C-alpha cells in the first residue's frame, strides 16, 4: 500500500495571528495619547503646538532607533528582541498614567520623555514583522501576510478606540495607559511562549517546512543553529546604496505619505473631533473607529489583490505597486473635508 503524503501543517498562520495581535496592541498603545489627549490638554494647560511636540516625540525616537533596532534583530533574533521591545513599550505606556501626579513643567517633561522612550522601544516592531514574514511565508503568500499584519494598525483603532473612549469617560484618562500597558505586558509573555523560527517551532511538520522553503521562505533566518555572520560590511556604503536606489526612493516617499495619514488618524483625529466638532470623548472614540474599519478592509484587500495579480501572471512590480497607488489616490478625498460642515459628511469622507 502506498502511504498517503503527510498533510502540511499550517503553523505559519498561527505566527501571523500572533504578529497581528502584537501589532494591534502596538498601534493601540501609540493611540492612547490621542484618546487621553483632550483631558491631558486641559489638565496640563497645553497649547496645540505643545501637544504637537508631545505627539511628535514618539516619531523622533522611533526614527532614530530604527537602525539600532534592526541591528538587534539581526544580532539576537526576532524572538528575544521583539519580546524585550513589547515589554518595554508596554511598561513605558503604563508609566504615562502616573503623569497626573506631577504638575507644570515636570509633568510635561515626563510626558515628553516617556513618549520618546515608547518610540525607541517600538522601533524593532515592523522590521521584526517583515523579518518573520520572510522566514515563514513563501513569496506567493507574503503580500497577503504583510497586508494582514499591516492592517492591524487600523484594526487597533477599530477595536480599542471605543474601549479607550469608554475608559476615559468612566474611569479617567489614567486608566487608558494602565489597561493598554497591562495588555501589552501580557502579550509579551504570550509572544515568548509561541513564536519561533520555522526550523525551531515544535508544531511545524516536514511538509510545511518543505513547502515554505520551496516557495522562497528564508527558513534559516530565525534558526537557533544559524552561524553568526562574521563578514564585515561597509555600513556607510550600504546606506549610500539604499539612499541612491531609485526604486527604494519611491518606496520611502510612498511610506512617508502613508505614515502621514496613519498618524493623523492615530493622534489628531480624536482631538479634532472633541475640540472642533465638540463631541464627547466617548462618542469620539466610536467615530474615530469608522475610518479605521475602511482602512482595515482596504489593507487586507490590497494584499489579496496583489497576490492574485502575481498568480495570474502580472509582474511582481506591477502587482505590488497597483494597490499602493490606488490607495494613495483615494486618500486625496480628505481634501473635501475642508469644504463640508456636516459631521456625518466629514466622517464619511475620512
UniProtKB/TrEMBL annotation:
<feature type="transmembrane region" description="Helical">
    <location>
        <begin position="249"/>
        <end position="269"/>
    </location>
</feature>
<protein>
    <submittedName>
        <fullName>ACS family glucarate transporter-like MFS transporter</fullName>
    </submittedName>
</protein>
<dbReference type="InterPro" id="IPR020846">
    <property type="entry name" value="MFS_dom"/>
</dbReference>
<keyword id="KW-0812">Transmembrane</keyword>
<feature type="transmembrane region" description="Helical">
    <location>
        <begin position="171"/>
        <end position="191"/>
    </location>
</feature>
<feature type="domain" description="Major facilitator superfamily (MFS) profile">
    <location>
        <begin position="15"/>
        <end position="350"/>
    </location>
</feature>
<feature type="transmembrane region" description="Helical">
    <location>
        <begin position="281"/>
        <end position="304"/>
    </location>
</feature>
<dbReference type="InterPro" id="IPR036259">
    <property type="entry name" value="MFS_trans_sf"/>
</dbReference>
<feature type="transmembrane region" description="Helical">
    <location>
        <begin position="324"/>
        <end position="342"/>
    </location>
</feature>
<keyword id="KW-0472">Membrane</keyword>
<dbReference type="InterPro" id="IPR050382">
    <property type="entry name" value="MFS_Na/Anion_cotransporter"/>
</dbReference>
<feature type="transmembrane region" description="Helical">
    <location>
        <begin position="46"/>
        <end position="65"/>
    </location>
</feature>
<feature type="transmembrane region" description="Helical">
    <location>
        <begin position="86"/>
        <end position="118"/>
    </location>
</feature>
<dbReference type="Pfam" id="PF07690">
    <property type="entry name" value="MFS_1"/>
</dbReference>
<dbReference type="InterPro" id="IPR011701">
    <property type="entry name" value="MFS"/>
</dbReference>
<keyword id="KW-1133">Transmembrane helix</keyword>
